[in-house]
Amino acid sequence: MNIGNAAKASGVTSKMIRYYESIGLVGKAERTESGYRQYTDKEIQTLRFIKRSRDLGFSLGRIKTLLELWQDKTRKSADVKKLARQYIIELDQDIEKLRSIRDQLQHMSDCCRGDNRADCPIIDDLASCGISPKFLPPNQ
């Protein structure tokens, strides 16, 4: 199957298939005499694996590791679980960071009158880099 059909079958764009090939995430596709890439069902399955992994937010480095584990029939499921658990810890940290950012923005938004006046606590906070005005050095 050509790259266009492989893209449709896998849900991965042709551009991304070429990119994954260029970085070694997938092997070089066989080529026809006229130079067109040809993909097998196995390669489509690999592209779908990559797509699903990307949909879950795995980095390309982790996907490479997951592909190696997937292809290794002697793998231990504990190795796969360890990788997933580490990613979960990082996701939890990201979620906490986003909650903190959201809470800060909510507080600034709640403090802003949102009227026709120029004074705005949101702008003031951004200008102070989040440092309380009482900690800023006096104007010179």
Provide a quick synopsis of the model.
The chain is mainly α.
Structure description:
This protein has 140 residues and is mostly helical. The protein has helices spanning 3-10, 14-22, 41-55, 60-71, 77-111, 121-127; strands at 30-31, 37-38. Strands 1-2 form a two-stranded antiparallel ribbon. A hairpin with a 5-residue loop joins strand 1 (30-31) and strand 2 (37-38).
Helices and strands in order, then pairings?
Blueprint lengths: L2 H8 L3 H9 L7 E2 L5 E2 L2 H15 L4 H12 L5 H35 L9 H7 L13
Antiparallel strand pairs: 1-2
Helix pairs in contact: 1-3
What gross morphology would you assign? elongated
* Oligomeric state of shown chains: single chain
Largest sheet, described in full?
A: 2 strands, antiparallel
**DSSP helical segment count:** 6
Strand order of the largest sheet: 1-2
Based on CA atoms alone, the radius of gyration comes out at 25 Å
The residue fraction in helices comes out at 55-70%
pLDDT < 50 runs, ≥5 residues: none
Query: What structural category arises from helix and sheet content?
Result: mainly alpha
Number of strands: 2
